[in-house]
Specification:
With about 200 residues, the protein is of the alpha+beta class. The chain folds into two domains: about 1-45; about 55-180, Immunoglobulin-like (Sandwich). It has six helices and nine strands, in the order ααββββββαββαβαα. Strands 3, 4, 7, 8 and 9 form a five-stranded antiparallel beta sheet that branches. Strands 1, 2, 5 and 6 form a four-stranded antiparallel beta sheet that branches. The chain starts with a helix and ends with a helix. Keywords: Membrane, Plasmid, Transmembrane, Transmembrane helix.
């Protein structure tokens, strides 16, 4: 009984100190939670900023008129690519084409000749010149607005791309149809027939 009385007396005499200790512990816990939450928020903001400013440079083989093909480099990302340099080749890296530009804005696209004598080539010539496993090797180096560096050694997925040439070529029959002098007239005729059928 005396021991219990002494304990109660000690608590009453030191209640202010105990309250301060309890309050300090609560403040430490709250500060820790706030710090963790703040770090998560900052991390999410950094990631969001990186996504909004990330350039995505993609090489393609495309046709200007459904017949002749050319090689193109385009920034399909949301941010600009700074200090951009690239090279591409087919079969022999010693014959690589090199290109540089200080700034490649989002949506900006540049077209270059394919690695053939005539540059832009019809599908038939491409099918004759290139085998099924012939690819254009593309490597690029650049940075984004934040200062992140993209190069073949550190960011291989973003900077090293291979394009199979024959996979990008319209099949011969389709290309022949598109090149037919009556191609446009045939489409108009078919649309008129569809329109007539809809009115019936």
């Amino acid at each position: 009984m005396i021991q219990w009385a002494n304990t109660v007396s000690f608590v009453l005499e030191n209640i202010l100190s105990i309250s301060q200790i309890f309050l300090s512990a609560v403040l430490i816990i709250v500060t820790g939670i706030y710090t963790i939450f703040t770090k998560q928020q900052v991390s999410e903001m950094v990631k969001d900023r990186e996504v909004r400013n990330q350039p995505k440079v993609r090489p393609t083989i495309s046709s200007m008129d459904n017949i002749n093909y050319a090689f193109a480099v385009e920034n399909t990302g949301n941010g600009a690519a700074y200090d951009f340099s690239a090279k591409w080749w087919c079969r022999d890296e010693e014959n690589a084409v090199e290109w540089q530009t200080p700034f490649l804005s989002p949506g900006e696209r540049h077209t270059f000749p394919l690695p053939t004598e005539s540059g832009r080539t019809p599908h038939g010539h491409l099918l004759e010149k290139f085998d099924e496993d012939d690819v254009i090797h593309f490597e690029a180096t650049f940075s984004d607005l934040i200062g992140n560096k993209y190069d073949p050694e550190k960011t291989e997925e973003e900077t090293i791309i291979e394009i199979n040439i024959r996979d990008c070529v319209v099949p011969g029959a389709e290309a022949s149809m598109l090149s037919s002098p009556n191609y446009g007239q045939n489409i108009v005729s078919e649309l008129e027939d569809i329109n007539k059928n809809l009115k019936k």
